[in-house]
Write a structure and sequence with these properties.
heterodimer, A: 79 residues, alpha+beta, SH3 type barrels, elongated, B: alpha/beta, Rossmann fold, six-stranded mixed beta sheet, five-stranded parallel beta sheet, 16 helices, 19% strand
Chain lengths: 79, 370
């Protein structure tokens, strides 16, 4: 239930006054509610839980974490 | 097609390197609890539990929403599902959870109209399409499902869908961490906080807990690299004698969390004492509907389900498993009387339950961490 999966926003529209989106999960497309992500854009990756987008994945933070992890490792190898 | 934000967090080479770094950092045994059952499954499924340095003892926490939903509410759900005037809707995981006498699947087999929904908004659609019956949604979970469940209630009110009600069983993670740390003889050196709960709530709530109990709390994601990163950060903090909150899942979690989602939780719910299955009542540990939304409260709409006598299986130790006091394999019934096909407790049912993870991925023997 807490295992949200990242998917890509491919379409944005409105239903019953709610901001909705089509989300592409690696080829499987599902609908999700975007009411909690007012700033979401087409092309963003979001984590979806029980049909609701709760977080937009931050590409810069993702890159920095990866770089840091590889670095930590490089230091390990030097020892 | 490779899935962005997934594949790179399962990279074998980086996994090996992080394991080496962990081995080079650790000097003594540490016990870490991953709060979230989704993380438990990821750890066991990926085999991380077998690759970590032997000094790390990972214990599994209470973060399985299906597992901690109290028996009384499961029995109430079954009573509602058995009524001809009710369509009972639920997340799929809940259907095999044992009640005192039977589960929701049995209620369905006996003629109850029980439907699995992916989102609470689907339950709302069913209500619109069936105006002659009451559609009850089993609104369970931690802070991750709360914004979705709250939205369904807000929408029911806004769209004047009167035949919709929710059976609420909402719990929160900080209350569980506090209860665990306050319980006598609890030996946890640090926590991996549930990354997806933090997408909603942020991690500011954990800062006073880390300070009070002098422990590191590391916000952690769900892929193997995320989990290793979380464990490594926790061990680095412990080895350096530091406490505090660290965010090892920064691509998804911010300090403040999702403000619009927090606002709707605040609008619809208020804090209340909640019973946790296998653990007992934890003060101010969950949500109930605010008075404004009382017409959508299934317990108020069907007061006749109010007093139900419950009884647990005497063999099941799921309460101890949920508190990290026992590993699933230490249960005499594990894999014998109790399997995912014939579960005695909810921890053997759920895709977030520790017993189901151990059973499904072949952890049949106790590993000695001494």
């Amino acid at each position: 239930m807490c295992l949200g999966i990242p998917g890509k926003v491919i379409e944005l529209y409105e239903t019953n006054g709610m901001k909705m989106a089509k989300i592409d999960f690696g080829g499987v497309v599902k609908e999700a509610c975007m009411e909690y992500l007012p700033e979401v854009k087409i092309g963003d990756y979001t984590i979806i839980h029980v049909g609701f987008g709760l977080s937009i994945l931050d590409e810069k933070e993702a890159f920095e974490t990866m770089e840091l992890l590889k670095q930590v490792d490089a230091m390990g190898e030097e020892e | 097609m490779p899935m962005k934000y997934i594949e790179e967090y399962r990279d074998a080479e980086l996994t090996r390197k992080l394991l080496d770094d962990l081995a080079a950092t650790i000097t003594r045994p540490w016990t870490l609890m991953e709060v979230c059952g989704g993380q438990t499954h990821s750890i066991i499924k990926s085999g991380l539990d077998r690759m970590l340095p032997p000094q790390i003892n990972l214990i599994h926490g209470p973060g399985c929403p299906v597992c901690v939903t109290p028996l009384e509410l499961v029995d109430k759900a079954i009573a509602l599902a058995s009524r001809p005037d009710v369509i009972f809707t639920s997340y799929g995981d809940m259907l095999r959870v044992p009640g005192s006498e039977r589960d929701l699947f049995s209620a369905k087999a006996a003629g109850g109209d029980v439907r699995i929904v992916y989102s609470p908004l689907d339950a709302l659609e069913i209500a619109k399409n069936n105006p002659d019956r009451t559609v009850v949604f089993f609104a369970i979970g931690f802070e991750t499902t709360a914004p979705a469940n709250a939205m369904a209630v807000v929408q029911a009110k806004a769209q004047n869908i009167k035949n919709f009600a929710v059976l609420v069983s909402h719990v929160t993670v900080p209350a569980a961490i506090k209860a665990l740390m306050d319980s006598p003889d609890m030996q946890v050196d640090g926590f991996l906080a549930a990354g997806h709960v933090c997408t909603v709530m942020g991690y500011w709530e954990y800062e006073p807990l880390a300070e009070k109990y002098k422990i590191p709390i590391v916000v952690t994601g769900f892929e193997p690299i995320d989990l290793l990163n979380g464990i490594l950060r926790a061990v680095q903090e412990l080895e350096a004698g530091r406490s505090g909150v660290t965010n090892a899942y920064a691509r998804a979690v911010s300090h403040d969390g999702n403000k619009p989602a927090q606002a709707i939780i605040q609008r619809v719910f208020e804090m209340t004492d909640r019973a946790w299955r296998g653990i007992g009542v934890i003060p101010m540990s969950g949500y109930r509907l605010r008075e404004e939304f009382a017409p959508f409260d299934a317990e108020k709409r069907f007061p006749e389900i109010g007093s139900i006598e419950t009884h647990e299986s005497p063999l099941c130790i799921s309460g101890l498993v949920l508190q990290g006091r026992k590993k699933p394999v230490e249960c005499p019934a594990f894999g014998k009387e109790c399997t995912p096909q014939t579960p005695l407790g909810a921890t053997m049912v759920s895709s977030e339950g520790a017993c189901a993870a151990y059973y499904n991925y072949g952890r049949y023997e106790k590993v000695n961490h001494d």
